Amino acid sequence: DAGVTQSPTHLIKTRGQQVTLRCSPKSGHDTVSWYQQALGQGPQFIFQYYEEEERQRGNFPDRFSGHQFPNYSSELNVNALLLGDSALYLCASSLNYVGGTEAFFGQGTRLTVV
Amino acid sequence: QKEVEQNSGPLSVPEGAIASLNCTYSDRGSQSFFWYRQYSGKSPELIMSIYSNGDKEDGRFTAQLNKASQYVSLLIRDSQPSDSATYLCAVCFGSGYSTLTFGKGTMLLVSP
Description:
The structure holds two protein chains of two kinds.
Chain A: E1 5-7, E2 10-13, E3 19-24, E4 31-37, E5 44-50, E6 53-57, E7 64-68, E8 74-78, E9 87-94, E10 104-105, E11 109-113
Parallel strand pairs in A: 2-11
Antiparallel strand pairs in A: 1-3, 3-8, 4-5, 4-9, 5-6, 7-8, 9-10, 9-11
Chain B: E1 4-5, E2 11-14, E3 19-25, E4 32-38, E5 45-50, E6 54-58, E7 61-66, E8 71-76, E9 85-92, E10 100-102, E11 106-111
Parallel strand pairs in B: 2-11
Antiparallel strand pairs in B: 1-3, 3-8, 4-5, 4-9, 6-7, 7-8, 9-10, 9-11
């Protein structure tokens, strides 16, 4: 059973550049959420995609955008990178269920902005 | 503001002891509660989910939920050095579709 996969695992970008991170959800899951985890903090919710639409969004600027494809995979795009965007970016997949169900994380993408 | 609070630790216990990790949350209407384990440099791994008041046991792990007190805990019996990690409490507030609010995590250190 394929779990959640993310690519790339590590990335170094220069301030002002743009980055795209990718995620394939767990087999059978239709909902993808993205989180940002800074060092020493818990993950912070960025947004969630379901049926190729952004359904919920956390407190992140519109420099953060995303997309979900018909096969449920997803991308996270960050424009105009800032040093403060350096973090572990996590993708979580789940089933569509009001009130929440178990969410499973990929291995994450470590983004370093220099 | 919906918040999840955890003691950052570290919580130090000897091998074989019971480790008790605690979490409080701000929204009485929350429905789903999760514990994740995160090793340094790795991603969070789901270890327990709990949806109703009471205890839920899975192997050496027991999750306890008290919605009236807005409190959820995780007990780890017979703690092993391999249990040393950060434990994240996550809450799905209200009618959220599996959008999780996390605490900052509690670091657990199990000494041999």
